[in-house]
């Protein structure tokens, strides 16, 4: 079972503040995340719970980015209590038997249990320092660092490139200022 894909649900939700402004936006988000079954059953009550979950998960990422492991783990433990996991064996789409974390609750409960358990498994297996917030100026989107050398610092290639270009230009300005 690949719990990283479940952890990606947490990242997707943290980075999707605008999508949670409407029921349709949230349905699109869930569909893009491969959760079309949840999207079809989504209600306004689910939307409010997902907004709260987003705030709670963002706090986990903020604690991890601030190198406060105890706070990040404490927040994850509290989320595990509020969103218990119900594992279930599943076989679909031509795949063999595999484990799903939950399949029989409200859409927000299913999403929450998967996202929280995936994030928890990633933290316990790889460490809290694998959760990050983008270091590009003005971005602050969440990401998972699954690199082998723990080197990820940006949410995307786009942000990494922008930050590198900005640093290069700053160095050039400094050098040209010293040569006159």
Automatic annotation (TrEMBL):
InterPro entries the record matches: ABATE, ABATE_dom_sf, Znf_CGNR
Signal peptide residues on this chain, from the entry's feature table: none
Pfam families in UniProt: ABATE (PF07336), zf-CGNR (PF11706)
Residue ranges occupied by any Zinc finger CGNR domain in the UniProt entry: 130-172
Gene3D superfamilies: Jann2411-like domain (1.10.3300.10)
Domain of life: Bacteria
SUPFAM superfamilies: Jann2411-like
The protein's name in its UniProt record: Zinc finger CGNR domain-containing protein
Taxonomic lineage of the native organism: Bacteria, Bacillati, Actinomycetota, Actinomycetes, Streptosporangiales
């Amino acid at each position: 079972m690949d719990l990283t894909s479940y952890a990606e649900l947490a990242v997707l939700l943290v980075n999707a503040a605008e999508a949670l402004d409407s029921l349709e936006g949230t349905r699109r988000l869930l569909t893009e995340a491969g959760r079309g079954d949840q999207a079809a059953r989504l209600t306004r009550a689910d939307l409010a719970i997902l907004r709260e979950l987003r705030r709670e998960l963002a706090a986990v990422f903020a604690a991890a980015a601030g190198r406060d492991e105890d706070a990040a783990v404490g927040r994850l433990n509290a989320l595990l209590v509020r969103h218990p996991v119900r594992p279930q064996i599943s076989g679909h789409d031509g795949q063999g038997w595999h484990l799903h974390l939950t399949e029989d609750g409200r859409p927000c409960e299913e999403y929450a249990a998967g996202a929280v358990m995936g994030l928890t498994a990633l933290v316990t297996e790889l460490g809290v320092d694998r959760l990050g917030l983008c270091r590009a100026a003005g971005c602050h989107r969440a990401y998972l660092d699954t690199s082998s050398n723990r080197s990820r610092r940006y949410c995307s290639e786009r942000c990494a490139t922008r930050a590198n270009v900005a640093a290069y230009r700053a160095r050039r300005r400094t050098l040209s200022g010293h040569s006159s």
